[in-house]
Design a protein that fits this description.
Length: 93
């Protein structure tokens, strides 16, 4: 990272040369103001080859965070299985 004079810090920020992410001090993670913004950032990570990321709401209510762990979809009532012999879908309840 290039060095710069701290007196010119505001100029660097305004020029867009330094990107400062909002920080959640409760979770010690980068915080995004909306789910949409967090998902856009996750898509950008994926485009840069940094793997999959998922957005989740901060448990402390301070925005949205990203995780590399796939969320547990417990809200789905039925799971679809394929019967190997018949090829028909069978639903668990």
């Amino acid at each position: 990272m290039p060095s710069f004079n701290l007196r010119n810090l505001s100029e660097f920020i305004q020029a867009g040369k330094i990107n400062i992410q909002p920080h959640c001090y409760y979770c010690d993670k980068v915080s995004y103001e909306s789910e949409l913004r967090a998902k856009k950032e996750a898509a950008e990570y994926m485009g840069r080859g940094k793997g999959h990321s998922w957005a989740y709401e901060c448990p402390k209510g301070k925005g949205w965070h990203l995780t590399s762990k796939k969320p547990n979809n417990s809200c789905v009532a039925e799971r679809r299985k394929r019967n190997r012999k018949s090829g028909w879908a069978v639903f668990d309840q």
